[in-house]
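Hello Y.,

Per our agreement to keep a running log of every chain we model this quarter, I'm adding this entry. I've kept the format consistent with earlier entries: sequence first, then predicted structure.
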Amino acid sequence: MERINEADCEFRFGDHGPKYLLRGPRIEWGVIVFKPGQELGQHCHNEVEETFYFLEGTPQMVVDGTSHRVRPGDVFRLEPPECHNIINDGETETRIIFIKTPYLPQDKVDMA
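Predicted structure for the entry above:
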C-alpha cells in the first residue's frame, strides 16, 4: 500500500503546472493547475495512454488539431499517438486530474 496526501506534493512551477502524486511502477497520476493564459504544450506519446478529468475551468482541449471546449466533469482518454494540448484561454484557473499508463516517463514527444 502507498498513501500520499496532495498537500505534501509540489507543483512543478510553484503554484501551477503538474503535481505528481504517484509515479510508477505501473501508473502515474496527479493534478494539473493552469492559470489563465497557460497551457500544457502540444505533445504526444508513443506508448502511453493519457486520461484527463477536468475538475474546474473551461479550457480548450486540442486533440490532433481539433479543439474541444471543456466543461467541468469532462473526461478525455487519449490513445497513443494522439497529439494533444490543453489551453486555458479562460479567465479562471483550470484544475485537472491526469492518469498515464503504463509508467514510461521518457515516452513524451514534444511537438513545439
